[in-house]
Amino acid sequence: MDGIVFFGTERHDEVVDFYRELGASVWLEQPDCTILETGSFRFGFCEREPADTEGIVTFVFDDRDGVDEAYAELSELADEEPRFNETYDIYQFFASDPEGRTVEFQTFE
To answer: Which InterPro entries did the record assign (predicted)?
Structure first.
């Protein structure tokens, strides 16, 4: 079974462009929704008011190098540098997308 997580957005094009620049590709284009995918992760943005900005969009990398590369591209949007989280045994950092959603970049260790 596969799945898709959908978010309402008031800034469709800007938000979709943000995630495409992170490496996601368009899986399906619908009249007011774009479904993106990266690996086996599918997520969509549909033009809606108000925007859904709760929750966390998390991208999982194979290793610290992937997280560090993402940080190098997004350092100006990041909350802080990547760090090891002992509670969950992950290496991670957080940033925000153009609409204020929390985006996490992590690898399990």
So the answer is: Glyas_Bleomycin-R_OHBP_Dase
